[in-house]
Specification:
The protein has 217 residues and is an alpha+beta fold. 37% of the residues lie in helices and 21% in strands. It has one domain. 37% of the residues are buried.
Length: 217
């Protein structure tokens, strides 16, 4: 199912404590590490992790302790460069071995891992389209994370901006994004909840490149 919304930067009463923090609006890199690496079990392989982990809390703790943001990859996956370069999103087993990447790599890991160990959580990709920013000539506007269900409420995790943070509970994705808009300090133009990242990333990238070229003429 796909949802879309127009969200402004109105004053918001935050239910997520992170929404009261100031974030760098021009980067999807972590502001701080939520979970210290010490004390978080790390199975020797992804297959062993799938056998040892039971749900989102296990996955989220590992993400908080292990994830590293790859700023150079973010530029290569920007909409400006993606039109000319085909780059695969990291597979979960590869990502587990080398947990470095960008938001969509982390979201894929979160969705596919939870589908394997706890499908009752109903993980989905949440694709956020921000008002665009330009960094070193590269247009950046989309951000990915994971939405799940627990006890009839919505939670959100696998966010490169705050690895290890489980946001919620929320009554809806829209309610979460109200808080997230305040936290990120960026206007959210629209969002979608999606079963896959694949076709959407290519289709939206091509569409936006055409629009940017037309606007520049």
């Amino acid at each position: 199912m796909i949802f879309a919304a127009r969200l402004g930067l109105a004053a918001i009463v935050a239910t997520d404590p992170f929404a009261a923090c100031a974030a760098d609006p021009r980067s999807d890199a972590p502001e701080e590490r939520v979970v210290a690496a010490a004390g978080v079990p790390t199975p020797a392989s992804y297959d062993e992790a799938l056998r040892a982990w039971h749900g989102v809390d296990d996955v989220n703790a590992w993400i908080g302790a292990s994830f590293r943001y790859d700023a150079a990859r973010a530029m290569r996956l920007s909409e400006s460069q993606r039109a000319n370069t085909r780059m695969d999103i990291h597979r979960p087993d590869d990502f587990y071995a080398v947990p470095s990447g960008v938001c969509v790599d982390l979201a894929r890991f979160g969705v596919e891992t939870l589908r394997a160990i706890d499908p009752s959580a109903k993980p989905v990709y949440v694709m956020i389209e921000f008002a665009p920013v330009v960094i070193a000539g590269n247009v950046l506007r989309r951000h990915w994370l994971v939405g799940i269900e627990r006890d009839g409420r919505r939670y959100f995790f696998a966010d490169s901006k705050r690895p290890g943070h489980l946001a919620g509970p929320y009554a809806s994705t829209r309610a979460f994004l109200d808080d997230y808009t305040a936290y990120r300090g960026r206007e959210i133009v629209s969002f979608r909840e999606l079963p896959s990242y694949e076709r959407t990333t290519r289709t939206l990238a091509a569409k936006r490149v055409r629009e940017d070229r037309e606007a520049a003429q």
